[in-house]
TrEMBL record:
Residues 1-11 have a biased composition (Basic and acidic residues). The keyword 4Fe-4S does not apply. Belongs to the multi antimicrobial extrusion (MATE) (TC 2.A.66.1) family. The keyword Nuclease does not apply. GO terms for molecular function: antiporter activity; xenobiotic transmembrane transporter activity. Keywords: Cell membrane, Membrane, Transmembrane, Transmembrane helix, Transport. Residues 1-22 are annotated as: Disordered. This is MATE efflux family protein.
Length: 460
C-alpha cells in the first residue's frame, strides 16, 4: 500500500541547514558513490554529439549545420523516451527499499520490452518522415540534404538506445551506476573510432558518422540487456513480455513523458530560432549546445544519485533521511554548477577552435558559452530538484510545471528571433533566453514544490 508522509521531523525547506558533520559526510559518500559513476554513463550521449560535431565540423559549415538539425531531432526522440529510465529507476528503487527485489526486477524486464517495441516503431517512422522533419525545422538546400542523410542512418540505433535507457534505469534503481559507466565508456570509444574510420577512412562523409553512432548504440543496448537479464534470472523474475506489466510501465511513465515533452519542445523552439538567425548562428548553436549538454549531464549525475536514494528512502518510509538528501544534493548541485560554469565561460574560445575554422562561428561560440557559464549554477539547482521529484514519483506535478514553464519561455524565444541580430550577438541573446528565462521558470516551479511535503509519499 502507498502511504502518505506521516513524519514531520526536519526542515522542509530545500535550502535549510541542520545536518551534523558526521551525517553530512555520510550523505556525501552515498551521493558521490552513485553520482561519480553515473557521471560517466550520463555524458555518453553528449560525448556522442561532441565527437560527431568535431568530426563532421571539419567537413564544412553546411555539414555541421545539418548535423545540428538532425542531432536535435534525434536527441529529442531519445529524450522523450527518457521516462523509460526515470520511471524505472523510481519504481525499482522503491521496491528494493521495501524489500521486494523480485518484483523490482520484474518491473525492469517489462520496461525493457516496452523500450524494444518503441525503439523499432520510432526507427521505422523516422526513416520515412526524415525529409519532412528536417524541413519543418527550417532546413533547406545543402543543410537539409546533410541532415536527412545523418538522420536516416543514425535512426537505426534507436532500438539499442532505448534499451540502454530502460536497462540503465533498472541498474540505477538497484544503486548500481558502475555497470552503465563501463558500458557508456566503451560505447563512446567505439563511436569515436567508427566515426573516424567511416567518415574519413571509408569516405562516407556525414553518413559514416550516423552509421558509426547507430552501431555503437546497438552494442551498448545489447551489453546492458544481458546484465539485466542475468539479474532477473538470479532473483526469479520472468523474462517473458507481460502485457499488464508493460502497460503499467507505460502508464507510470506518461506524466514524465509530458514533462520531457515540454523540455524538448523548448529545445526545438530554440533551434527554430537559431535557424532563423542564419547559418553562423545555427552552427555556433550546435557547438555551444553540445558543450551545454555535456555540462548538463554532468550535473544530472547528482540528480540520478538523488533519484535512487530518494526513491529508496521513501520506499523504506524514512522521511527525515529524504529531507536531508534533498538539502545536501542541492548544495552539491549549485556548487558543481558554479565550478563548471567558470570552466565553460573561460574556455569558450578554446573549445571553438576544436570544432570549426570559421572565425565568425568561433566568436559566436565563445560568446554563447560565456552566457551559459554565468547561468550554470542555477541549472545545477534545477537539475537536482528535478531528480529529487522524479525519484519521489511526483511525475504529475512535473508534467504540469513543465508545460507552464514552456508557455513562459516561448514568447522570449520568439522575441529573439524577431529582433535579435544574426551571428554572435543573436546567439548570446538566444542562450540568455534559454539558460536564463527558461531555467529560472523551472527553478521557481520545482523550488516551490520542494518546500512542501506533498511529494513525500512513502511506501511502494
Amino acid at each position: 500500500m502507498r502511504g502518505r508522509d506521516r513524519t514531520r521531523e526536519g526542515d522542509a525547506s530545500p535550502s535549510g541547514t541542520g545536518l551534523a558533520p558526521g551525517e553530512r559526510r555520510r550523505l556525501d559518500r552515498q551521493i558521490l558513490a552513485l553520482a561519480v559513476p553515473a557521471l560517466g554513463a550520463l555524458v555518453a550521449e553528449p560525448l556522442f554529439v561532441l565527437v560527431d560535431s568535431a568530426i563532421v565540423g571539419h567537413l564544412g559549415t553546411a555539414q555541421l549545420a545539418g548535423l545540428s538539425l538532425a542531432s536535435t531531432l534525434l536527441v529529442t526522440i531519445v529524450g522523450l523516451a527518457v521516462f523509460l529510465a526515470y520511471a524505472t529507476t523510481a519504481a525499482v528503487a522503491r521496491r528494493v527499499g521495501a524489500g521486494q527485489v523480485r518484483e523490482a526486477m520484474q518491473s525492469g524486464v517489462d520496461g525493457m520490452w516496452l523500450a524494444t517495441g518503441l525503439g523499432v516503431v520510432l526507427a521505422g517512422v523516422l526513416l520515412v518522415v526524415a525529409p519532412w522533419a528536417v524541413g519543418a525545422m527550417g532546413g533547406a538546400d545543402d543543410v537539409a540534404r546533410h541532415a536527412v542523410v545523418y538522420l536516416r542512418w543514425s535512426s537505426l540505433g534507436l532500438p539499442g538506445m532505448l534499451i540502454v535507457l530502460a536497462s540503465t534505469g533498472v541498474l540505477r534503481g538497484l544503486q548500481d551506476t558502475r555497470t552503465p559507466l563501463w558500458v557508456a565508456a566503451g560505447g563512446a570509444a567505439l563511436n569515436a573510432v567508427l566515426n573516424v574510420v567511416l567518415v574519413y577512412g571509408a569516405g562516407l562523409g556525414i553518413a559514416g558518422s550516423g552509421i558509426g553512432t547507430a552501431i555503437a548504440q546497438t552494442a551498448m543496448g545489447a551489453v546492458l540487456a544481458v546484465v539485466v537479464v542475468r539479474g532477473a534470472r538470479r532473483h526469479g523474475a520472468s523474462l517473458r513480455p507481460a502485457a499488464g506489466g508493460i502497460w503499467a510501465n507505460a502508464r507510470a511513465g506518461a506524466p514524465l513523458f509530458v514533462r520531457t515533452l515540454s523540455l524538448r519542445l523548448a529545445i526545438l523552439v530554440t533551434v527554430f530560432v537559431a535557424t532563423g538567425l542564419g547559418e553562423v548562428t545555427l552552427a555556433g548553436y550546435q557547438v555551444v549546445n553540445a558543450v551545454w549538454l555535456l555540462a548538463a549531464f554532468a550535473l544530472d549525475a547528482l540528480a540520478i544519485a538523488a533519484q535512487a536514494l530518494v526513491g529508496h528512502g521513501l520506499g523504506a518510509g524514512d522521511v527525515p533521511r529524504v529531507r536531508a538528501l534533498l538539502r545536501r544534493s542541492l548544495q552539491w548541485g549549485v556548487g558543481a554548477g558554479a565550478v563548471l560554469g567558470v570552466v565553460m565561460a573561460a574556455g569558450g574560445w578554446w573549445f571553438a577552435l576544436l570544432f570549426t575554422t570559421d572565425p565568425q562561428v568561433r566568436t559566436a561560440v565563445a560568446l554563447g558559452m560565456a552566457v551559459c557559464g554565468l547561468l550554470l549554477p542555477m541549472a545545477g539547482w534545477v537539475f537536482v530538484l528535478d531528480g529529487v521529484l522524479i525519484g519521489a514519483g511526483d511525475g504529475r506535478y512535473l508534467a504540469w510545471a513543465g508545460m507552464l514553464t514552456l508557455v513562459a519561455y516561448v514568447p522570449f524565444a520568439l522575441a529573439v528571433r524577431a529582433w535579435a541580430p544574426d551571428g554572435a550577438a543573436g546567439l548570446a541573446w538566444l542562450w540568455l533566453a534559454f539558460a536564463g528565462v527558461f531555467m529560472a521558470a523551472r527553478a521557481l516551479t520545482t523550488g516551490l514544490r520542494a518546500r512542501g511535503s506533498r511529494w513525500m509519499v512513502t511506501g511502494v
